């Protein structure tokens, strides 16, 4: 039975929530989530690329020959990655510097190519856009949540766009931040434990 | 920086998997068996050195010279994808034994962000050609080392009794974190 557009949208928020349900595209998830801000920024950049690539792949789905489809998808994705790179250099240069190598690497993010191949190349335009929005927002929320968790445990604070800052030690004066969480090993452990918690909730 | 420091830095201190978080999909995907981990490592070493050399040449002599640096992402991915395809065809014809050994891992490397990431890092850090070549090789060796170590641990986990919600990927990530901790101790060395 074909799903409605709303169903395509909401499945990205829970049933196929990346990166927890679809364990794909882990590199940016681990690499940029040292703060909530970076996580959300990365999520939004990926959402933009996902929207553009799903939209165009869906438009051209009957024209692209099956044999060279992956190459065509990658070219479409790479074009949108360049658009994001240039936009961020113009309007969010600080964030662009923080995310560094992970912005050009959206081009090899398995989620983006995966949605183009598994969904957009087989579905109509409105459905593909809804799918991209759902998966993109799910990805952004997951990255934001993981970033917030790591930032609050590792630094004891959460900063939102450099203006508003939440400090954990104002509630628990004896709290000592543990640096481990914002370092490389903490990323793996935090993601593993979050996956475990979601597995418990899911069951 | 001398070549020795560069090699140590790229293998241990800035390990591409555990310190820079590039190439985690094949890291989790191919580490369930030692055999596949070895195959993937070999394929990555082979392709990463070639890709590092070619993208450096393309970047320096085409993109920079003609002021096309903004096309870097699309140029690199096209170079890597065609390189992988070419290597596959070449090996199939001339060294069938190696081709059979690398098998399915060769095409998978196109979407391995470690390869693309290493190429981008090389030009970002403005390495010379030889430095880029050495760094690519060292990154690839670091990738292989981490992958093989992780596969060894993961084979043992299969025999352990893991709580149900932690099974599979979840325990894999926690294990990777502990291995990353071992690599983390190299930090500040170079």
Key terms:
heterodimer; A: 203 residues; mainly alpha; 8 helices; 2 strands; 63% helix; 4% strand; B: 190 residues; 9 helices
Structural class of chain B: mainly alpha
Number of domains of chain A: 1
Give the helix/strand class of chain A: mainly alpha
Strand content of chain B: under 5%
Form type of chain B: globular
How far apart the termini of chain A lie comes to: 25 Å
What is the N-to-C order of secondary-structure elements of chain A (H for helix, E for strand)? HHHHHHHEEH
Low-confidence stretches of chain A: none
**Largest beta-sheet characterization of chain B:** none
- How helical, in percent, are the residues of chain B? over 70%
- Protein chains sharing the most extensive interface: A-B, 42 and 43 residues
- Tally the structural domains of chain B: 1
Q: Radius of gyration of chain B, rounded?
A: 17 Å
Mean pLDDT across all amino acids of chain B = 88
Number of strands of chain B: 0
Unreliable sequence segments of chain B: none
Helix content of chain A: 55-70%
- Biggest β-sheet of chain A, characterized? 2 strands, antiparallel
The Rg value of chain A, from CA coordinates, equals 18 Å
Number of strands of chain A: 2
Total count of helical runs of at least 4 residues of chain B? 9
Fold blueprint:
The complex is a heterodimer of chains A (203) and B (190).
Chain A: H1 5-11, H2 26-31, H3 36-59, H4 69-91, H5 93-99, H6 110-120, H7 125-154, E1 157-160, E2 164-167, H8 184-202
Antiparallel strand pairs in A: 1-2
Helix pairs in contact in A: 1-7, 3-4, 3-6, 3-7, 4-5, 4-6
Chain B: H1 3-13, H2 24-29, H3 34-64, H4 72-94, H5 96-102, H6 105-108, H7 113-124, H8 129-157, H9 169-184
Helix pairs in contact in B: 1-8, 3-4, 3-7, 3-8, 4-5, 4-7, 7-8, 8-9
Structure in words:
The complex is a heterodimer of chains A (203) and B (190). By secondary structure, chain A is mostly helical. Chain A has one domain (5-198). Chain A has helices spanning 5-11, 26-31, 36-59, 69-91, 93-99, 110-120, 125-154, 184-202; strands at 157-160, 164-167. In chain A, a hairpin with a 3-residue loop joins strand 1 and strand 2 (164-167). In chain A, helix 1 (5-11) runs parallel beside helix 7 (125-154). The longest helix of chain A is centred in the last third of the chain and has 30 residues, at 125-154. With 190 residues, chain B is an all-alpha fold. In chain B, 73% of the residues lie in helices and 0% in strands. Chain B has nine helices and no strands. Chain B has helices at 3-13, 24-29, 34-64, 72-94, 96-102, 105-108, 113-124, 129-157, 169-184. In chain B, helix 4 (72-94) crosses helix 5, helix 7 packs antiparallel against helix 8 (129-157) and helix 8 (129-157) crosses helix 9 (169-184). Classes of the chains: A mainly alpha (203), B mainly alpha (190). The A-B interface holds A 23-28, 30-31, 71, 74-75, 78-79, 81-82, 85-86, 100-101, 104-105, 107-110, 113, 183-189, 191-193, 195-197, 199-200, 203 and B 18-25, 28, 70-74, 76-78, 81, 110-113, 116-117, 120-121, 124, 164-166, 169-174, 176-178, 180-181, 183-184.
